[in-house]
Amino acid sequence: MKKSEILKAVIEALEEELRVQLKGQAMAAEGATHSEAKAESKWDTCGLEQSYLARGLAKQFEALSIGVMELRSFRPADFCGKPIGVGALVQTDLDGYQDFFFLLECGGGTEVKVSGQTITVITPESPVGCALMGKMQGERYSFRAGSEGTILEVE
Questions:
Q1: pLDDT at 12
Q2: pTM of the entire structure?
């Protein structure tokens, strides 16, 4: 599997997420300024809640768009025989289930399908990412009480 193909699929998935977030932000902003959102009493906070939602969505959008811009210029290194770091593609076996993880700075939780394989993006801050960082192929890792896995392959 080529990491460049996986990265391209991740960027496409995140760009779609940006489009969805932009629509949601527009709807929340419209709801906050709509004539029916005007408070009828001091307990009526519908318009205020919509404005908070719009602001939160705008912050999420901004953070994700910065991350996508950085991913567009990111070129993952080869991690064969090296400790796992950002840009590594890792195949693991955890309690009998094999997974492919792509360690990136943003997009955690995004799943893409490339060459018939599902690859999950993880970040260094995620529980799995934290458990894998700095480990090598063949080593064991653990996170959560009782969950232990083996690193099968690192690219």
A1: 98
A2: 0.84
